[in-house]
Amino acid sequence: MSWIEDPAFTADAPFGPQTLPYGVVPGGVAVRVGDQALLLRGLALGERLEPVVATGTLDALLAAGRPTWSELRARLVEIVSATSAPRGAELVGLDGAVLPFAVADYVDFYSSRHHAENVGRIFRPDGAALLPNWTHLPVGYHGRAGTVVVSGTPIVRPHGQRRSSTGPVFGPTGRLDIEAEVGFVCGGPVASRLTPDRAVDHVFGVALVNDWSARDVQAWEYQPLGPFLGKSFATSVSAWITPLEAFAVARVSPPPLGNDVLPYLVEERSWGLDIDLQVEWNGTVVSRPPFREMSWTFAQQLAHLSVNGATVRPGDLIASGTVSGPARDERGSFLELSWGGKEPVVLDDGERTFLEDGDTVRITATAPGEGGSVVGLAEVVGTVVPADER
Ligand SMILES: O=C(O)/C=C/C(=O)CC(=O)CC(=O)O
Ligand SMILES: [Ca+2]
Ligand SMILES: [Mg+2]
């Protein structure tokens, strides 16, 4: 029996010893154990590891690279599995967790075929659902790193310009939406021209992302250069980053693209992941997006984004793109769930198309772990607050 007495710290719960995600609470860098956080600062981790976790962020750990990540995880498994509390062990609550790392670049992909086809049909009803490049490269765009916020941060309804029958108008968005995504947090040495098989050494861990989107602003502004103010006001990310190592048995092959890809995108063994997401809108579960349905993996995304010589550096956040499956109740955005606002979504407390002020969205996820255990991704939650006065 572990010295950590917490009913949520078991192999069949998402934050048992098989998961051990990292975050930062008011006491410093910590690892999540069930519904508590174990501070790393007082633990005897050895001369090499102690300075890496002694700061108030995960930045030094991200920079340290794969051998350090593995060593620390192995040491923490030992510590949390011990029968008596090791010297210096301090358990605290999860409250007050902050954005645990400095976001370097934020890139958002578009790797769900179902999402891409749905949005294509809604935004471009007269065109092809899928554009011809989509099965040949992981389509993406550069987002805004400075407005990535930690789970729990209130989301102010953004202002913007949108189309009306009489010309452009300005004001708070009337079509505030979510995008349920999986984010990959980069680390290790600065590198470029990664192969998909080397990309794994540049991914520290996995988090959930909600890429809030103002659909009316986006629909008017996006051509020809892509999303801009419709998505740059806020992107929420989990407070706890689950190490990539926890996903060893969750690896799956993605659905076939239907054509060969160029050699620089070929993976020896695929990094598709069998993660099940769940989206709650004001407490009602409205969708269960399956990440295994994503057509492009993070390894291919990193190979693609660095193939021109662009560097990948610690703190880069790579979002998968909205996770949507083939079924209606597997769609990862309300744009799709309400089919462009035409088919209301029924919640326990009323009907909705897009978000209203006061609405709360909570995204959670799990994956299969070693020996039948459950690996969790920490929730990403946000509540919409009214637009500024002007
Ligand atoms: O197809 C479009 O014009 C726009 C699509 C999106 O809004 C999606 C986006 O941000 C990428 C994604 O999350 O899949
Ligand atoms: Ca997105
Ligand atoms: Mg966003």
Automatic annotation (TrEMBL):
GO terms for biological process: homogentisate catabolic process; L-phenylalanine catabolic process; L-tyrosine catabolic process. GO terms for molecular function: fumarylacetoacetase activity; metal ion binding. Keywords: Calcium, Hydrolase, Magnesium, Metal-binding, Phenylalanine catabolism, Tyrosine catabolism. It comes from the Bacteria. It is an enzyme of class 3 (hydrolase). Pathway: Amino-acid degradation; L-phenylalanine degradation; acetoacetate and fumarate from L-phenylalanine: step 6/6. Its cofactor is Mg(2+); Ca(2+). Mg(2+) binds at D211, K231, T235. Substrate binds at Y110, R124, Q218, Y222, T322. The active site is at H115 (proton acceptor). Its EC number is 3.7.1.2. Coiled coil: none annotated. Ca(2+) binds at D108, E179, E181, D211. This is fumarylacetoacetase. It comes from Saccharothrix texasensis.
